[in-house]
């Protein structure tokens, strides 16, 4: 079994009866969703809150009951993937473009569990380009202002000459900083730039990381 499947399935086992569960996005979470679908068909009572349209479609496909974020008061747990994780549990997310909804859902959860294969761990963030969600209006100017924070950037494209659009109808700028030495400072600085909707730095959000080494799944807690 591949690493993503092992960690993804392990996270599904944390879900207990009557929990409201944030359902992250990405190829690792796919395995969490599939396992949750099996558990639901065996009698588990839970409700999911999806972080992307794609996850919502998968949840429906696996017969996982879902509600929108606006219909719940809080979430018992949110389970999501990550693109990079540093030693202090800071994350880069948004490789799949769902960072805004992922951050909103994680922010409403009492416990945030990240599932990550062995490639995601790093000493310092920045090796993976940081996704920043920006509004299409004046995106060129927003890009200039974002690059003043010390990165080079690329507008994420879907097809030739067509920008990728998030579920919220926005663009994604992938920002290469090489090293992000102060993630909290950068997270706040980026979100102060007019035109920026949200960025993929998740600082102080994750409570536990379910990861794997030499085919053995283990949990890292803060
Ligand atoms: C999507 C995300 C994903 O959690 C992240 O990209 C990890 O994806 P995968 O599990 O496919 O490696 O942040 O916006």
Report the average pLDDT across residues: 97
Biggest pleated sheet: 7 strands, mixed
- Strand element count: 16
Query: What spatial form do the alpha-carbon principal axes imply?
Result: globular
Helix amount: 25-40%
Topology:
Elements: H1 3-12, E1 19-23, H2 27-41, E2 46-50, H3 53-61, E3 66-67, E4 77-80, E5 84-85, E6 91-92, H4 99-107, E7 112-115, E8 130-134, H5 139-147, E9 152-155, E10 157-159, E11 162-163, E12 171-176, H6 183-191, E13 196-199, E14 201-202, E15 208-213, E16 216-221
Helix pairs in contact: 1-2
The structure holds ribulose-5-phosphate.
Ribulose-5-phosphate binds next to α2 and α4.
What does this molecule look like?
This protein is of the alpha/beta class and 222 residues long. It has helices at 3-12, 27-41, 53-61, 99-107, 139-147, 183-191, and strands spanning 19-23, 46-50, 66-67, 77-80, 84-85, 91-92, 112-115, 130-134, 152-155, 157-159, 162-163, 171-176, 196-199, 201-202, 208-213, 216-221. The chain is globular. α1 packs across α2 (27-41). The two termini are 28 Å apart. The mean pLDDT is 97. The structure holds ribulose-5-phosphate (5RP).
